[in-house]
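Hey,

Quick one before I head out. I ran the complex with S-adenosylmethionine overnight. Inputs first:
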Amino acid sequence: MARSEGDTWDLASSVGATATSVAASRALASRGPNPPIHDPYAAALVRAVGTDYFVRVAEGAVDFDEDPLFDGDTMRAQIVVRTRYFDDFFAEATAAGIRQAVILASGLDTRAYRMDWPADTVVFEIDQPAVIEFKTRVLGDLGAEPAADRRAVAVDLREDWPAVLTAAGFDPDAPTAWIAEGLLIYLPPDAQDRLLDHITALSAPGSRLATEHMDSRAFTGDWARKLTERGQRHGSSVDLTKLFYSGERNSARDYLAERGWQISIRTTAQAYTAQGYEAPKDELLAMIGDSGYLSAELSARPT
Ligand SMILES: C[S@@+](CC[C@H](N)C(=O)[O-])C[C@H]1O[C@@H](n2cnc3c(N)ncnc32)[C@H](O)[C@@H]1O
């Protein structure tokens, strides 16, 4: 179904299924001896959602190797690079003394449980109610213990989420490390701007933010269509062309820079090589342009 204002989902439907898809990739990359990432809960979370295709991906039972666009090695590299980028971001932020973290659109992200957080760190996770409740319940049933003071915040990011976050104990005077991993493309352009405005307003000096960098040349229907066809070749029923808001939007890089953030961009090719992987195939790179990852720091509140 196409997107609409105020639409909702669980982890098996609409945008929620994309969270299960990413968790299935993390489960796949966590398999075997000496895996390049280790998400000990991803496979169990994917099994609990129960979507057959994602369970098979998580179990390594789908053969992506011959895929002409995005083969198995590229897929594993992609999730490793992405996971480490945001893991490293949080590790560096806490090493610099930040003790408040916010995971926007947390989906089936288990960082609050699996990362080494300094003892006094508070980690807020924000996502839609059905997503937050599901993950909290399944991890509780598994006996998983948060490794930080985890606060689950069930709210839609197109609504007045700062009020709900503040009610959960967020301190706007403490520097914060924010991540928005796999989120912006699922927000309408004006909701992206509002999100970045809210983050800026809630960020004390010294705050940091990491998210994807999206090259505007990549915002064509083609990108979503090619990725959708690639998933469907292997049995996925997710249709990204119906889930992305792929029209024109402000670039997060420019928008944040105008509001006083210092920006650092790592393109996908740079991110792959930084982690010791070969850059993806030219066809894939041509599709995503210079998209990659963005991190930013705010040294003073904008006046
Ligand atoms: C691709 S998944 C990414 C999940 C997680 N960040 C990760 O990388 O594993 C997209 C996530 O964005 C969340 N999301 C998208 N739009 C949202 C909104 N308006 N409000 C709250 N959550 C939203 C979805 O529920 C889903 O969990």
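Residues 176 and 190 are 23 Å apart (CA to CA).

Talk tomorrow,
K.
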